[in-house]
Structures are given as structure tokens and as C-alpha cells.
Amino acid sequence: DGTIALPTRSAFVGRRSLLRQHLRPFLDGTTRGLMFTGPGGVGKTTVAALFMRLLQERQSNVRAFGFQAPFHLDTLYEPLREAAFDGTEETTLSERLGKELNRREQIRLLLTSLASRSHPCAFVLDNLESLQELATLEIAPGHEDSQWFVRTVCGLPAPTRVLLTGCYRFPALPRHVQYCAIPDAPYGDILLRMNRLEWPHGMGVEKKR
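The structure corresponding to this sequence follows.
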């Protein structure tokens, strides 16, 4: 939906150990679901977007979807419907969708249809901590539809890939979704990133430090 920008590989800095451990299994499909956790601003969304970018580079026919929590079903419906009706849909999809009045079931039909085609799907579900109560980390009241959407996407069959981000572990994800904690970046990576920034003219070393 345009909320998640995919960085180029050349623009990405560091996280070498994380890439060595998790990238190849994700690209190969051995690991179909990853949830990146860590403090706000540590780079979870950027890492997820990089994984999606590299998956698209390896498999050019991948359909990529990016959604940011909280997830409103009426907002999700249109981009999923538009993607589903691309000429490759099954002949009965339109009829079945028209008969279904429940929004959850309409979205389930669209997701199931997309996941069953020759073009594999991949999802980035971002900002899941916005659905949780800080004291208990359980789903906060009013976010039942969002929780349903997360679990439904994670339950789609192979070769569908799912990347999730949040400050904390999310309750009751399927077992095939692996957690990957992202710590603060090493100082060397931070300095490398800072050296690429466009600094204001005339800013001295002390000000930069």
C-alpha cells in the first residue's frame, strides 16, 4: 500500500551476521515466515524491506504486499481485490466473492486465491506492536480484525513468504514463523552509515560527533 519502501542492496549498511543466518533460508523457502523484533528505530522495517527486495530480485514474478498495522479490513480489501483480478484468477472467484457478505471471508477468499497461483506471494506486515497492550503484550481491545488478518496471512500455504516486524513477540503465531531479534547496530555500521549522509555545509567534526 506504499507505506514500506524497499531499499536497494547498495544503500543498505551492515547487519552481516543477521543476513548470514536468516537471508538464504528465507530466499530458498526453508524459512517462510520471519518476525523481526527489537526496540523502535533499530531498523526492523528496513531489514524486512531488504529481504523483500532481494526475494524480488531472485524471483521476479513474486507479488509483494506491504501493510502497516493496525489493519483495517475495508482498507485492505481493495488492493487485494485489485491484485487478485489480474486475468489469472479462477473463473469462480468473482461469483464466490459476490455471494460472500462478510468482509473477513471476502479477504480470506482473495488471500487464498492469490496464494494458490503460479506467482508466489510475499507479505510485509509492519508495526505489530501497535496492536498490543504494553503491560501484557496481549492484543488490545478493538484490534481483533488485525489479529485475524495477521494469523490468516501467516497461515497461507507454501510458497507464500511472510515478514513481520514489531517491538515484541506477537501472541499465537504459527510455529513455522521464526523470531529474529535485532539488537542495536555495531558502532562500525553506524559510522559507515553516517559517512554516507549529506552533512550541512561547514559542519565541523565536533558538531558531527
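The chain has a mean pLDDT of 90.
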